[in-house]
Request: fold
Amino acid sequence: MIRIALAAILVAYLPGAMLFRLPVAERTRRASLPVEERIFWHVMISLAWSLTVVLVLAAFGAYRLERVLIGNATLVAVVVAVARTRLGYSGTAAAPTARALVPVLLVVLAAVRFFPSSEYVIGGKDPGGYINQGVLIATHGSLIIHDPEVAAIPAPVRTLFFNSHGNMEYFDNRFMGFFLQDPETGAVVGQFPHLYPASIALAYDIGGIRGALGAVGFWAVLGVVAVYLVGARLIGRPAAFAAGVLLSFNIAEVFFGGYPNTEVVMQALLFAAILACARAHQDGDAFFAPVAGVLASLLIFLRQDAPLAVGALGVAVVAAWIVDSKRPRIGFIVPLAVAAVAGWFYWSGPMRATFWRTQMVIWRAPVWAIIGGLVAAIAGIALAVRLKSLKSDGFRRAVPMASVAVLIALALYAWFLRQPGGKLTDFDAAAFRTFVGVYAFPLGMILALAGLLIVMPRRFWHDPAFMAVTAVYAAFFFYDLQIWPEHLWMARRFLPVILPATMLFAAAAALGTWERWPRGPQAIRAIVGVIVLIILGQQYRIAAAPAVSHVEFKGLVEHMDELAKRFTDRDLVIVESRDSSDVHVMGIPLAYIHGRHVLVLESPLPDKAMFETFLSDATKRYDRVFFLGGGGTDLLSPGTRASLLTIVQREAPSFIQSPWNAYRGGIRPYKVDYSLYRLEAAAVPASGFSLDIGFDDDLQVVRLGGKEVAEGRTFRWTSRQGFVTVRGLTGREREVVFTMQDGGRPASAPPAVVDVYVADAAEPLGRITVKGGFAEYRLPIPPEALKAMMTATGRQIRLVSTVWKPSQFSASTDTRDLGVMVDRVEIR
Reply:
């Protein structure tokens, strides 16, 4: 614990504390800041320094925690050696007051609300990708790793696992969220920008996997404090504290405070950059100019929408220059210029695949749009220079009033009038209404719009960066969410800026901007405001209650540890295709957290002869070869033997993800359902065919449903079409026998009819009408059909079923296309 504490202090506190105390740039100005803000800057500057060091080292493949600690210790030693006794404030520092307890209370509240963190170590979605990407940096020390498992695959059988899709930017997916750049060298890079994974790498090296998972909670707490400090400067401490409490109570902040994501990281960094920008340009403190520049620069390596934030900050700085003749500080510009150059090489180099996907899928803009943006920026600077030469008083008055008028008009239009049509989707048209109805609530939005009307005209030029960033993010994301429209997934778009800004404006409307308790009529207004905020906070608290007590995927860390212990570093684990089931998401932590040898099949229908060749070679290079699956893969051939080792069926709690227009808060079970087989290259004797569907069938079914149990039997549902692989026939078989039932299909649904084919035959082997209750259904096998079943291309029984959706015939939420329940298939 002492080692962990010392490492954490050296990473997240000491470098910033020493740099903040340097006797340069009128230190007495920042020494007079409240003690809580000084401590905040110690942490933020330390994190900015440490993360920059991690990114630079990892870019050269040289990251190690020890090197970061040595670098930080060296920085501290150099500052102490240079400044010596002058590091003391010499009586110029503001003394701690009772007000310092306010952010402490927020820290405690936020920590209680956000921890313990999710156990999202599996892949499949962004959270698992971030965690595994961070662990990769920690274990491999590089942004790009060279995966020996990939490079070792012989080229003739490579298409079993990887298949180029013609993209110049990357070859294929190594895992979901990880791009394979070169199959010859095994070069792999994570899909996501590396700043947040860099913080996960530090947390992993200091506190293990629990530390890595908890990094998001640390960032979320820091984000609440950053919002409070911006609010304290803008609207006063009482209203800022109320906003921080409301933010900590809101379900979006609570859920994502424990769910690995970059939005809470952006919230912390961006609000810190806004505060530093105000300190530098509005307060005239030169020290904070490079701080603001560095914090804004780090956003380039955090998220693809960073240009919005950086551009808004730039607009605010230029606008202040026009109005108040406060020139943009060189200390702010230089870090951004350096980061822009580094960012160009970063996004066009290791992150070129992500950049391409962002450009083509998210921004939907060709390269010329970037050029257009640069031209627009140059034109904007020219316009600013022209406005600067004119009388600025009118500009000073017009900008705040025009901004508040436009924003309120847009809000009212989006709330009451905006409708889908043309290219405007329903969820984008309703984005503002969705935010109000599910996250801000009508009372919160009414207060926020009132606060906007009160604060923006009066305080715009006091904090133009906050005003500009808020306006840009609200206009952009309420126009087009740019995300899959599903709760709570879509709430991420509101998290960095829109939600905290809403809380600040709402608190300002309720409480005003006083620092001391007002008297007379103002005191009555304050009391009413407190009551209104208590009502709003109670609404948020009730809505967030399921998320507060919830740990996403609780128990998965322990379960993945148990699974990984089944294998050694001399074993190979083959995982079924992404097209088969969700089992593939377990391959990522097995490979990148636990260091096991893992390959994921490209298809649920791999070439069997090619796989026999691969397996024969793999058994010479590895002690054992395993298969992990659950959805169904047609893998077995006469030369491949599989032995079932275990079937695992567990559940982990997961928050309900519901459609954008049908929010349902609550917890549902996430099924961890897989089977583990030992594979061997060995001939299988012809001994007949009998398959227990839903038990040891993972290597002999395709396109059937997941494993289930009913009436003491294992089974799978058919859908519109599914396949059962046949092997071991002796040539004496005469009939195929199915044990099936209709699954309680209602009388109003189509009849449960199954047409049975041999592989791709045009004519069915027969038609079966399935009734209620499990029963045997027999079809004779003509000699020509049996002969076809014994060929390499005909070893499949194809089941084509009529289907029904339970959700269409009852109150069930099951939207699957269900055919019939199949318990067993035998050929006698």
Q: What stands out?
A: Confidence is low (pLDDT under 50) at residues 360-366. The CA atoms of residues 61 and 515 lie 51 Å apart. The radius of gyration is 30 Å.
